[in-house]
Input
Amino acid sequence: MLDCIEIQPRAPASAAVIWLHGLGADGNDFVPVVDELGLAHDHGVRFVFPHAPVRPVTLNGGMAMRAWYDIRAVDIAAREDDAGIRASQADIEHLIAREIERGIAAERIVLAGFSQGGALALHTGVRHARRLAGILALSCYLPLRDTLGTERAAANRDVPLFMAHGRQDPVVPCMLGEASRDLLVAAGYTIAWHSYDMPHQVCLEEIQAIGAWLRDLLD
Output
């Protein structure tokens, strides 16, 4: 099981957000965002921030860092690390199962992530066998896109999807996020799409939109 940081609600937990960090960061990265989401005082949402395993990353000269999977080329959607993606998918499935064991219904669990973490959240969420509350995918893309048609789960074909991207993103180009959005829409998914004048980061306006989305989803 992955090591995680957990932010417990004041009220008994009735929902969970599993939030995956980006390449080279760790679970601490989005902890400060929780207080900025504008959730009610008694919201009952447990936030789970797992740490990715430490592994060599080819694009960074083989340097070992926290990564959900290897990045092998400047074109991050090329030469994809199928085995690494699927191993991390299994790790996230274990986290979902743990939340269910702790009394949170699958349809009250949100998968969220930024950058590489957002890519993994998208990949895992649309393949999860039980209906989830939603998928939050920030500044990312859909990996292993050619397998979506045969691997997506019927339970999550109408799952709420929130995608956001910076229009000046030099790390994960916005056009890559848009292409993933268009692929998902063509496959029948409904996307709440947001774009912002920013590079590879999040902004206050985006955090406020995420908070409103989560409130609508989980209230």
